[in-house]
Design a protein that fits this description.
This protein is of the alpha+beta class. The chain has one domain (14-72). Helix content is 21%, strand content 48%. The chain has one helix and five strands; from the N terminus they run E-E-E-H-E-E. It has one helix spanning 36-52; strands spanning 2-6, 14-23, 25-33, 56-65, 69-73. The longest helix has 17 residues, at 36-52. It is globular, with a radius of gyration of 14 Å. The two termini are 23 Å apart.
């Protein structure tokens, strides 16, 4: 796992949008939001932006959390046989 965007200072618990893509294989957190309703209202826009950039979204949810990393890229390491 390769973290690309660390949060410089700890954040308080808040509402975040978590989006998982299969291409590229990444997880993203967008936020924080003041309410679940606000995050739900804006979620489609974040999904649309990722899809316009060529990402294939697999899963999205609004959750109450405190992410430590905003963007995580996962690479598969293929061994030569």
């Amino acid at each position: 796992m390769y973290s690309t965007e660390m949060i410089p200072e700890p954040l308080e618990l808040a509402w975040w949008i978590e989006i998982i893509t299969v291409f590229p294989r990444c997880s993203y957190f967008f936020g924080p939001f003041m309410s679940a309703e606000e995050a739900n209202r804006l979620q489609a826009g974040y999904i649309e932006d990722l899809e316009q950039e060529g990402s294939q979204v697999m899963f999205a949810q609004v959750k109450w959390c405190q992410p430590q990393v905003l963007t995580t890229l996962e690479y598969q390491v293929l061994s030569k046989e």
